[in-house]
Amino acid sequence: MPVTTVTKDPNALTMTIVAEFPVPVRRLWDAYADPRQLEKFWGPVGYPATFTRHDMFPGGQSHYYMTGPNGEQYPGYWEFLDVDPGRTIEVLDGFRKEDGSRNTELPTMRAVFTFEQTDSGSRLTSTSYFNSAEELEELLKMGMDEGTLSAMSQMDDVLADLQSFAAGQGVQTQLIGENQARISRVIRGSKEQVWHAHHEPELLSRWQLGPDGWTMPVCEVGTTVGDSYRYEWEQDGGGERFGFTGEVLEISPPHRAVTTEAMIGQEGTPVTNELTLTEVDGGTLLTLLSTYLNAELREMILGTGMADGMEASYARLEREVLQTQAG
């Protein structure tokens, strides 16, 4: 158990938990920055968390839910107030309703996570600040302290796994809920480089080609809210041709972009794609959360080999764009 002290101060309206780990600060920080890792320990034992959004930059948000033994869900959110990479994370921590909106009937609190190097590894200090003695008492009655300690008891196993989340693993696909899928990959490049490569037509048309043998004759990029985009691909020699179009719904360079996506010439509800870039050890963690109309459409699209095509594109991005820029 990594926790060394738990201090509740009813006068200061705080609860502070200190834990130490035999890993570098960078490794501990990445466990909080990477939603794939965070969801393995954020929920108490028996109540695993699923993060459907994790934008770790000031002004960004995280959306998650914990699932109980009988399938019941407990949604929550973070609003990032401050992020000092490798040192501190400050969030507003609260509950959400089933429809995703914030539940203002339940307490919120401010939480600060501080990361420090020690002689034997790293130290995490988590301090929760409550709005009133009544809210502090209410959250403790809800089992906040026991739940937090139960969740943190899982951290050692996550931190010891140096392989599953490292650069070089290729594209990973995770099904979320009934109609979402999350694509994840660490790209060997800075966040700014990866963002630029996604939003500069000359670069994008060099790497986002899927398997060998295709070109991208149409590459019209959207860079502000309300912009439309259009991408078309063609087999070498003038063979098969297809494309996608959509609209930019949100954009926060170089962190996050939300777009719709529809195949040109086909009717139906478009897919919504949420792209998030996060700096981690070895490069930039790219996550793409896609929300489909239903599970059937999700399975059909994933069944086309989409993940394999994306891996070919990301490998090309590293090889032909980012390494060239570095040189």
TrEMBL record:
Pfam family example for this protein?
Answer: AHSA1
Q: Where is the Activator of Hsp90 ATPase homologue 1/2-like C-terminal domain?
A: 23-159, 190-319
Do you know which CDD domains this protein is assigned to?
Answer: SRPBCC_CalC_Aha1-like
**InterPro entries found in the cross-reference section:** ASHA1/2-like_C (IPR013538), START-like_dom_sf (IPR023393)
Indicate the family of this protein: Belongs to the AHA1 family.
Q: What is this protein called?
A: Activator of Hsp90 ATPase homologue 1/2-like C-terminal domain-containing protein
**Species:** Brevibacterium daeguense
